[in-house]
Amino acid sequence: QVKVKCTDLRTKDKNELLKQVTELKTELTTLRVAKVTGGAASKLSKIRVVRKAIARVYIIMHQKQKENLRLLYKNHKYKPLDLRPKKTRAIRRALTPYQANRKTPKEIRKRSAFPPRKYALKVTRSFTVIRLCLAKSTSVAPISRITLCGWSDFGSRTRPEPSVNVLRLKVWSVATIEIAFPSGCPDISHISYMKTEIEKKFTA
Prior knowledge:
Keywords: Ribonucleoprotein, Ribosomal protein. The protein is about 45% helix and about 15% strand.
C-alpha cells in the first residue's frame, strides 16, 4: 500500500475521490478481519496507514466542497454560518455601523438646535511646553519648590519671580513633570542636564 499524499488527491475530481475512499474502506475492513483471525504482523501494521489515508481523502473532499460553496455564495448578501468570518462572539453580535449611527427623532432635533460651537482664542503670551519623563526611581510628586541650574518652580498657588525663566512646572505623575518656558525652546543640552540633575537630587 503506497502512502496517500494530499497533493495527488487535489488533482482528482469528486467521483475519483469517492471511488478511492470506498476502496480504502474495503481494505481496512479486510485488515481488521485479519487482525481478529490472527493475521501477519505486516498486515496489522497497515491498519494505521489505511486509516490515515481515508482521513486525507475526506479532508480533500471537504476542502473542495468549501471552495465550491465559497464561489457559489461569493456575491450573496447572506451566507451559511460556516462560510462567514469567525472573529469573536462579541463582534458577531455587535451592531453594524449603520445601526450604531442611527439617531432618534428627538436626538436629531436636539443636535440641530444645539450644534457644536466654535470659538476663536487669542494667544496673549507664547511659551514652549516640554515634558520630561524621569527615571522610575525618581519621585517629584511631593516637591513644592525646586531650584537648580537657573530653573525654578514655585507651587501652583504662588507666582514665579520675574527673574526666573520657567513659567510653570506641573507634576503629571510620580516620575513625569511638565515645564513651560517663555517663547522659544531652550537648548537641548540644558534640558538634558536639568533632567539629570533632578534625577540625582530627588531619587527615591
